[in-house]
Amino acid sequence: MPKPIAPPRPRAATSGDEALLADSVVVTRLDRAVGWARKYSLFPYPFATACCAMEFMSLSMSAYDIDRFGALLPRFTPRQADLLMVIGTVTMRQAPILKRVFEQMGEPKWVMAFGACASTGGFYDNYATLPGIDRIVPVDIYVPGCPPRPEAVLDGLMALQRKIQRSRQELSNRSDPSVAATR
After folding, report:
1. 34-51 tens-digit pLDDT
2. Smaller CB count within 10 Å for the chain: N or C?
3. What is the DSSP string of 144-162?
4. How far is CA 22 from CA 28, 82, 133, in A?
């Protein structure tokens, strides 16, 4: 029986400086490093209006521990948040408030529709309920359920993290005078 062919070993560094760098340096592109950092530093703004808020609260408990995804500390001002989590039913009277909250958030920003009511209006089919928040703000991730289980919310959060990491990260060049003049 023939022996399996072993994969080639990486060549050992010959000089002292190369050996030191081989163990302690990671080489990547800057936009990928920024995407990785943004992926694990989400600051959610919970726009909680209904029964789904109880499921959102359970995410911080030890059984689900949303902190391991870098999204534990909710921000209660849109200027410090980059993830708008719309949790529950949104009425027509709340729609302008939700739009203003979205507009006050800094770039980059993402939106998660949490539950059937935020995604489609839920089982409310009347004039007072907004039939889906995607009519007023762009939605990145939809989490299904009425109310959605915490596992589904974590799946949606991981999908958003993958989307953030894969997207092209805009890096501003503050030293360029033409960019500074347009601000």
Report:
1. 877 787 888 888 888 888
2. N
3. -SSSPPHHHHHHHHHHHHH
4. 14, 36, 50
Distance (Å, rounded) from C-alpha 134 to C-alpha 116?
Answer: 12
pLDDT per residue as tens digits for the range 80-122 = 888 999 998 899 999 999 999 999 998 889 999 988 888 888 8
Q: Are 21 and 161 in contact (CB under 8 A)?
A: no
Specify the CATH number for 43-165; select among 3.40.50.300, 3.40.50.720, 3.40.50.12280, 1.10.620.20.
3.40.50.12280
The identity of residue 148, as a single letter, is P
Q: Is 134 exposed, middle or buried (0-12, 13-18, 19+ CB in 10 A)?
A: middle
Structure tokens at 112: 């998660």
Token pair recorded at residue 28: 């990547």
Euclidean distance between CA atoms 177 and 167, whole angstroms: 27
